[in-house]
Automatic annotation (TrEMBL):
Pfam families: F-box-like. This is F-box protein SKIP28. Coiled coil: none annotated. The gene is LOC107002760. InterPro entries: 4Fe4S_Fe_S_CS, F-box-like_dom_sf, F-box_dom, F-box_LRR-repeat, LRR_dom_sf. Residues 4-51 form the F-box domain. Keywords: Signal. Residues 1-36 form the signal peptide. PROSITE patterns: 4FE4S_FER_1, FBOX.
Amino acid sequence: MTQTSSQLSAPHEAMFLILPYLTLFELLSLTQVCKSFRDALKHDILPWLNIVVGKPINTRFSDEFLVKIMSKAKGRLNVVALRNCYKITDEGLLQVIASNPFINKLYLQGCTSLTIEGVIGAIKLLTKPNHKLKNLAISGIYNVKIEDFQTLCYLMGINQMQMKQITKNFYHVRHELYAFKQESQPSIDVDICQKCGEIREVFDCPRDSCKRRMQQQQQQQQKQLLIECRGCFLCVPRCEECGVCTKDEELGEAACVDILCLNCWLHLPKCNFCNKAYCNQHAYQQHVGSSLGFLCSECSFHATQSSH
């Protein structure tokens, strides 16, 4: 018995098992492969329940495109993660939230066209008596005042002191796009920096000696946790690779603008000429030639100039 053409063109059932693991960029690319793939994604709601927008499509995400993509979840969105989507405005965000009132995790890092007033409006819609927003990320949104932060904490039912004691926020994992899968993350990614008083991401130190000092303060039930190395990125310099505080620490020379502790620097590959290292985030700047190793951007530039 021969199969009909529609049966031949239908996607294999195994494809539906991998769809929830694909990134948004991969899902959108898949819709362009053929009509059967496009129809399969159109009628399958599962891949659209957790929307994570990152590179390379974040800079092209407008309000109109955001609403169109989010509508594929048919009002059942669980996670919305927008990283550096600077074209998204309050209007687009509120339209998505109004259509998806049961979002559990909302990440808006670097969405600089959003206002704190718009974010507070969205959180009010997501914190009704029958629903609780578990996690919120707003680092990179401008003009957040202490009273705005306190309003968000009140709406989400966050005890600020308890939040500092239970959850830790580490500098070296801040760029992890899929951090929403971690259950031990802070309820809100910003805090009041005890050193400068600004609302920013405040980081804890993963160094063992700093952890012990923090535990001692907690055991002594001090009213304020004023550990020396807990603060925002402007107040406490940290190693880009491991996140430890670098005060009184010997540093390794970095080829990029980031800070590297000596221990991490020793384990990273170095420029063949100046012996400076790139952190993993900026390793793409390495200029690899025909020989082993690489040249940093500055040494490669000088080498090119001298050859002319």
